[in-house]
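User: Please fill in residues for this 303-position structure.
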């Protein structure tokens, strides 16, 4: 199980403005009731408006300090043995969400629990221990350039000290699963194969160590429909046969709706909708409807 509890994450923008003047800070403090970077409130504006006002105040507060709010007080649970899809337009923070889950980024505040253990601030050695139960398919494959395809897929097993013959068998089986049974491919370098093939190799590598949790960042983008279906089916198979917990970032609506148990729609630093795909489809949110219908006009704007 993966749980986010009130996770806030911001990044420094490239052209950070100078620190606000004392006067600006003073005005901001009185107008927005913000005390200091801890984002505490002097008094509550009332439950109904609380979140909305707090969110816009936090955003303004951070922007003045040259920081961009990516996740604002986000909470959710990814259940065990499920497929959860994270959707949202480019730049909303989907990759960031996965990187936080993997302990590759630290949130500004909040807790991230992996099977009940809070990984925020965990020392690297212990984090590595947690990561051993995870497999990653990064957005652009992120294979080791100097290792062959076969060595890439076998890398995690090698690290675990598995015997060579066993590794070879698993590597072959996983490459076959992703439609790359050819021995020629196994001995190639990542630079010698196509982008789509690199994605499939990344998938084979993630599955090789039989992790309990799998994080996939756009595993099917750039693949042809047939190969996308093969990858989707592998995710489903992994859940059904190995009982894995899967988080898939995807833009591909038909596959999101087909394979996921739960959908989380990220928009403007918060979760706009969350639930089983059928429920989310019926959501009254204009943002969700615009996304599902792929319309250019609506609340989602291109920055
Ligand atoms: N290292 C970074 N420094 C500054 N901004 C970043 C960094 N990484 C991501 N961002 C910003 O965070 C936002 C979310 O990025 P990302 O998680 O990659 O979005 P998505 O995967 O949904 O397209 C984007 O606006 C991006 O510009
Ligand atoms: Mg991304």
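Assistant: Residues filled in for all 303 positions:
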């Amino acid at each position: 199980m993966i749980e986010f509890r009130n996770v806030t994450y911001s990044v420094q923008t490239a052209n950070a403005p100078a620190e606000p003047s004392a006067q600006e800070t003073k005005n901001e403090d009185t107008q927005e009731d913000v005390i200091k970077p801890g984002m505490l409130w002097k008094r509550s504006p009332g439950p109904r408006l609380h979140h909305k006002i707090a969110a816009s105040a936090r955003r303004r507060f951070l922007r003045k300090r040259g920081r961009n709010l990516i996740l604002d007080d986000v909470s959710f649970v990814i259940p065990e043995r499920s497929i959860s899809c994270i959707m949202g337009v480019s730049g909303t923070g989907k990759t960031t969400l996965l990187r936080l889950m993997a302990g590759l980024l630290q949130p500004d505040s909040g807790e991230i629990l992996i099977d009940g253990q809070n990984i925020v601030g965990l020392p690297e050695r212990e984090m590595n221990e947690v990561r051993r139960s995870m497999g990653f398919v990064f957005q652009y494959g992120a294979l080791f350039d100097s290792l062959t395809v076969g060595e890439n897929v076998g890398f995690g097993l090698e690290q675990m000290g598995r015997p060579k013959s066993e590794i070879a068998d698993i590597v072959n089986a996983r490459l076959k699963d992703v439609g790359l049974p050819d021995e020629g491919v196994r001995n190639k370098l990542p630079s010698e194969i196509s982008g789509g093939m690199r994605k499939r190799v990344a998938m084979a590598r993630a599955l090789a160590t039989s992790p309990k949790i799998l994080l996939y960042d756009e595993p099917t983008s750039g693949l042809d429909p047939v190969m996308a279906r093969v990858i989707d089916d592998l995710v489903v198979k992994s859940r059904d046969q190995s009982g894995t917990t899967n988080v898939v970032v995807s833009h591909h609506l038909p596959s999101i709706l087909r394979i996921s148990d739960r959908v989380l729609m990220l928009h403007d630093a918060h979760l706009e909708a969350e639930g089983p795909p059928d429920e989310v489809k019926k959501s009254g949110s204009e943002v969700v409807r615009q996304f599902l219908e792929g319309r250019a006009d609506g609340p989602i704007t291109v920055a």
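For context: Confidence is low (pLDDT under 50) at residues 23-43.
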